[in-house]
């Protein structure tokens, strides 16, 4: 089933439309959530309410909020692992329930916090999960460069052929941050239209995080990106930020707009900004 399901062992019932729409060849407007509500089957309460959100091609969108706010649930609906109970989600104006679920999901590369680590070579760790045909694949090295992984890979004794983990006699252990970069390279390798990152930088030190997101917008090119992060330094480089609380979007805007508002976003990140000692964080 590809990269998307690497991390998810759930497969709820999702209906296949009788006459599916063809996916757009090039995405123009992107994804829109329109007044979306959701309740997990068997759950007594609504997990998402009244969600309005959009992700356009080439745009980096961030989702922030305290634990349990509903961020991962929103991603599950975005990737059509569940359908809304109210409202709708559209891709270029068409309800996503009108597309074949499998084709629709192929638009997404998702990296969750507990991304996979394969006891295999660096090269194999990047191209596992690639469901595109060989002719369609971007080069493994290109994807690694895009993910900021090429530097450490080229310093390994056998470069891209280096076996990873000590399960091999000559296997190398790499750091969590380096595994994270390989997961990002895996996402870049696929010709997906959207990259979804759920806490992508939790294990990265500030320097590695800076490398990973330096010129990120240019590196995603025409793709749309949605990231969940608890780190101000990651979130503030997004084009647009949604703040969630108890299943609702309670604030949205650019970093600057949200700081000026002095609301929930401001409160969430004020302690972190103090640690950054970085005046820019507040601009
Ligand atoms: N499969 C499920 N069935 C029922 N309730 C669920 C399920 N998964 C999550 N929930 C509930 O939905 C709410 C939102 O959870 P979700 O994981 O979307 O939050 P989150 O904002 O991503 O949190 P975190 O920052 O901790 O990852 C929580 O109250 C959670 O307990």
From TrEMBL:
One Pfam family it belongs to: ABC_tran
Give GO terms: molecular function aspect only. Answer: ATP binding
The principal localisation class reads membrane
Domain called ABC transporter: residue spans: 31-271
Keywords of this entry: ATP-binding, Membrane, Nucleotide-binding, Transmembrane, Transmembrane helix
What is the protein's membrane topology class?
Multi-pass membrane protein
Membrane is among the record's keywords? yes
Keyword Membrane in record: yes
Q: Where in the cell is it found?
A: Cell membrane
Which PROSITE patterns does this UniProt record tie to the protein? ABC_TRANSPORTER_2
This chain belongs to the protein called ATP-binding cassette domain-containing protein
- Source organism: Halomonas mongoliensis
């Amino acid at each position: 089933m590809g990269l998307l399901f690497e991390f998810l062992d759930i497969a709820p019932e999702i209906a296949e439309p009788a006459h599916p729409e063809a996916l757009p060849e090039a995405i123009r407007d992107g994804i829109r959530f329109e007044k979306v509500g959701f309740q997990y089957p068997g759950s007594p309460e609504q997990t998402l309410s009244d969600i309005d959100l959009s992700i356009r091609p080439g745009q980096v969108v961030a989702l922030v909020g305290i634990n349990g706010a509903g961020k991962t649930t929103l991603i599950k609906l975005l990737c059509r692992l569940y359908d809304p109970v109210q409202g709708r989600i559209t891709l270029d104006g068409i309800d996503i329930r009108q597309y074949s679920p499998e084709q629709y999901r192929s638009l997404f590369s998702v990296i969750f916090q507990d991304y996979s680590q394969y006891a295999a070579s660096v090269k194999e760790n990047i191209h596992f999960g690639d469901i595109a045909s060989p002719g369609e694949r971007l080069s493994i090295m290109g994807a690694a460069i895009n993910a900021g992984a090429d530097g450490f890979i080229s310093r390994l004794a056998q470069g891209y052929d280096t076996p990873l983990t000590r399960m091999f006699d000559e296997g190398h252990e790499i750091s969590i941050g380096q595994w994270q970069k390989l997961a990002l390279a895996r996402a870049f390798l696929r010709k997906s239209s959207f990259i979804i990152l759920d806490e992508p930088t939790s294990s990265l030190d500030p320097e590695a995080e800076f490398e990973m997101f330096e010129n990120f917008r240019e590196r995603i090119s025409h793709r749309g990106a949605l990231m969940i992060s608890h780190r101000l330094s990651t979130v503030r480089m997004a084009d647009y930020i949604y703040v969630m609380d108890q299943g609702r979007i309670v604030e949205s805007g650019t970093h600057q707009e949200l700081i000026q508002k002095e609301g929930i976003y401001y409160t969430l990140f004020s302690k972190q900004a103090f640690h950054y000692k970085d005046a820019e964080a507040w601009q």
